[in-house]
């Protein structure tokens, strides 16, 4: 089968007209990104929300044109429409039928069918270990017997494929849904899987929301007990809109013990409280350091700050994770420590955090979608 190249896709899109009906897509500026991997093509287009008919027409035309290229096996077109805050992009049924108008939205977003809980993992600033914590909590929840997914929504640095050792792009089902890729018992979709790694997109807030809505609603997530959303770091408008529009059960805030990070973490807590999303708790990451040579414990960043801060703010403290080489090395090799070394103290720390998250979500534990253990009594 012939190799599909990005250049070929762009060349074909020169024959598709943009919303104005005359400018070639490839020159219209609406073509936000093209990403190709082994016959799977992902196209991000920006469309004018003021003209939904044209938007649907363009989407369909792009879909059909790319599908017609020899060697193309899957096509997924992300609409990065400039939405009015609070509105939902229109969605299709995947059969090329006219897209249905989305039902009126509840202020907290409609639930995702078959997904019990959506949990945001957030941080006030970047580099505190939010993604590492998300990955390990997700694997730990799966180890506790839950059906778990991760939606990597960190537009500034989508790292979940790397952290969870995923190298392929997702398939698209016959009815137009993306199939998450599973590893370490967790279903994963990353916003990074849809765009070209070499030419990062410049995301504006409303574009993020429309792509995110697609990744929530046009992905075969169900059945899931918990969908972990790895949020972009920070507390700006993008993060606020996301926390407002995604039907979240709660949020986990990751912080290092440093004062500055704590100040940022406080902003994170305040942001979720503003949009009435319950804070499930705070995780103190890089809490302390144990010297690999002498075993001595050093409190590099004034350990314990997050616990005190959580108490002061009357939000639960979920636990602390040390600064440890193994955590970083395993993450970088696509093996979260919970999966790679489940008996280690670090994995146990994440397991304890995951149990507390679960307890905060549903005191007594989530049981509905789990099969009861079978006991065979021999007589
Ligand atoms: P964020 O998502 O907040 O930007 P990451 O999870 O990407 O942060 O972590 C930033 C870096 O710190 C990564 O290289 C990661 O491997 C490392 N890291 C995160 N948590 C720990 C930890 N507890 N011990 C050692 N390294 C860590």
Explain what you see.
- The protein has helices spanning 6-13, 25-28, 52-67, 130-143, 160-163, 205-217, 237-245, 259-274, 305-313, 325-332, 337-340, 345-361, and strands at residues 31-37, 40-45, 74-79, 115-122, 148-152, 181-183, 186-190, 224-230, 250-255, 279-290, 297-298, 317-323.
- With 379 residues, the protein is α/β, with parallel strands linked by helices.
- It folds into two domains: 6-80, GMP Synthetase, Chain A, domain 3; 115-361, 3-Layer(aba) Sandwich (Rossmann fold), CATH 3.40.50.
- The strands form two sheets. Strands 4, 5, 6, 7, 8, 9, 10, 11 and 12 form a nine-stranded mixed beta sheet that branches.
- Helix 6 (205-217) packs parallel to helix 7 (237-245).
- Mean pLDDT is 82; it is low at 82-108 and 368-379.
- Adenosine-5'-diphosphate binds at residues 123, 126-132, 159, 233, 285-286, 321, 323-324, 327-328, 331.
Shape verdict: elongated
Counting DSSP H or I runs of 4 or more residues, the number of helices is: 12
Q: Uncertain segments of ≥5 residues (pLDDT<50)?
A: 82-108, 368-379
Average of pLDDT: 82
**Succession of helices and strands:** HHEEHEEHEHEEHEHEHEEHEHHH
Secondary structure class reads alpha/beta
Q: What percent of the residues sit in helical stretches (DSSP H or I)?
A: 25-40%
CATH architecture of the largest domain: 3-Layer(aba) Sandwich
* CATH superfamily caption of the largest domain: P-loop containing nucleotide triphosphate hydrolases
* Beta-strand fraction estimate: 15-25%
Radius of gyration from the alpha-carbon trace, in angstroms: 22 Å
The strand count comes to 12
Give the tally of structural domains: 2
Q: Which small compounds were modeled alongside the protein? A: adenosine-5'-diphosphate
Here the CATH topology of the largest domain equals Rossmann fold
Mind describing the biggest β-sheet? 9 strands, mixed
In whole angstroms, how far apart are the ends? 60 Å
CATH class of the largest domain: Alpha Beta
């Amino acid at each position: 089968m012939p190799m599909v190249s990005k250049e070929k896709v762009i060349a074909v899109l020169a024959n598709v007209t943009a919303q104005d009906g005359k400018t070639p897509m490839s020159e219209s500026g609406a073509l936000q990104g093209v990403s190709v991997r082994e016959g799977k093509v992902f196209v991000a287009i920006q469309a004018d929300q003021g003209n939904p008919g044209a938007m649907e027409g363009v989407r369909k035309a792009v879909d059909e044109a790319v599908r017609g290229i020899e060697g193309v096996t899957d096509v997924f077109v992300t609409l990065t429409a400039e939405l009015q805050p609070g509105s939902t992009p229109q969605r299709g049924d995947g059969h090329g039928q006219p897209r249905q108008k989305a039902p009126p939205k509840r202020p907290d977003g409609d639930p995702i069918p078959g997904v019990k809980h959506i949990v945001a993992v957030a941080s006030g600033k970047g580099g505190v270990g939010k993604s590492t914590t998300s990955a390990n909590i997700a694997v730990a929840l799966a180890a506790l017997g839950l059906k778990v997914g991760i939606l990597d929504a960190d537009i500034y640095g989508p790292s979940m494929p790397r952290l969870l050792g995923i190298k392929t792009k997702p398939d698209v089902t016959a009815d137009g849904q993306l199939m998450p890729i599973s590893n370490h018992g967790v279903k994963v979709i990353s916003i990074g899987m849809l765009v070209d790694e070499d030419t990062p997109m410049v995301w504006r807030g409303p574009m993020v929301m429309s792509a995110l809505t697609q990744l929530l609603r046009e992905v075969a997530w169900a059945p899931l007990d918990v969908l972990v959303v790895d949020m972009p770091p920070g507390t700006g408008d993008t993060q606020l809109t996301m926390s407002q529009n995604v039907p979240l059960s709660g949020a986990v805030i990751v912080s290092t013990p440093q004062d500055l990070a704590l100040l940022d973490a406080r902003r994170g807590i305040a942001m979720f409280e503003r949009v009435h999303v319950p804070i499930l708790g705070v995780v103190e990451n890089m809490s302390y350091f144990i010297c690999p040579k002498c075993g001595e414990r050093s409190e590099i960043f004034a350990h314990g700050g997050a616990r005190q801060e959580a108490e002061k703010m009357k939000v639960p403290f979920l636990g602390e994770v040390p600064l440890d080489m193994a955590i970083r090395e395993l993450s970088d090799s696509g093996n979260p420590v919970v999966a790679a070394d489940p008996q280690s103290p670090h994995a146990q720390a994440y397991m304890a955090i995951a149990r507390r998250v679960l307890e905060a979500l549903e005191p007594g534990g989530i049981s509905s979608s789990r099969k009861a253990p079978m006991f065979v009594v021999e007589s």
